[in-house]
Prior knowledge:
The protein has helices at 4-36, 43-60. Helix 1 (4-36) packs antiparallel against helix 2. By secondary structure, the protein is mainly alpha-helical. The chain starts with a helix and ends in a 7-residue tail after the last helix. The protein has two helices and no strands.
Amino acid sequence: xxxxxxxxxxxxxxxVVVILGQSVLGSLIGAILLAIEDRNPPGLLxxxxxxxxxxxxxxxxxxxxxx
Length: 67
């Protein structure tokens, strides 16, 4: 039987995945738009996208204990 706390954790992980996914898409779209204008994307935009991808990979990768 699941407790109330465990049910909230599912929604928390879903919200985090959605927010990180939006960060990845936003930085990707921003970099593409800047490339179309022949401008280099700022380092902060690249760092934000890279960190969001790393966060998604860390959240979605299976734990070695759960294999």
